[in-house]
Design a protein that fits this description.
HAD_2, six-stranded parallel sheet, Rossmann fold, hydrolase activity, hydrolase, 239 residues, two-stranded antiparallel sheet, 13% strand, 46% helix, 2 domains, alpha/beta, HAD family hydrolase, S-2-haloacid_dehalogenase, single chain
Length: 239
Amino acid sequence: MRDVDYVSLDFACTTFWEPGCDPKYSFRYARDTLLKILDMLREKGYSVRELDDPYKFYREILDSTYRTIPGEPWIRYVLLKMLLKLGVDTDEYIIDEISDFYVKERSRHFIPQPGLEMLLKTIIARGYRIVLTTAITSHDIVKNVLEHSGLMKYFKLIFSTQMVGLKKSDPKFYSQLVETLCVEPYMVIHVGDDLVTDIEPARINGLKTIYYGWRTKCRASDPQPCILELREVLNYLPP
């Protein structure tokens, strides 16, 4: 008799791909989004000072925020700080508009991994329930992606760092996941592509794990089981 009830799937770079998964493109992708935001503000008549490197400016604010708060920063808060540091005479309406634009712009870059829907259908057909875990700094981005891809119906829950107020690398993130699901840790198997934010903290809390090792090519030293194709998850989920 099997003991796993829930399959926890990581969002970015495991079930969904985005340019930021590849370090070669993450800078360009983020920079282009920020430039669009600055252009939008200027078109609306806001005075926005010129930046030599918008991405560096944004990263400095984001990194500073990470250093000074214990949990995961809400992207709306980071964007607010950015606008104020740029000297924008902001209000709640423009913050809402910029945040909504950021969510939509970021969402459109995420695409499901090949064969994801069939994988989800098979997992459910075998009697498992599926939750999605994510460190994306806006819960709404994940909801947007799932709704537009038509895959929301396969997930019982989106468990985000924004919702729980913890970094995904914090083992308490996974203890809260287990507590929320009202199950024992061994009844959850977590699948993720990052050792620091997925595999190690999940294992500390007693969850089973499957390492999606596309980054490291499943080295001998990597945690086992390690898979190179997402569909290989099914090898560890008996009917």
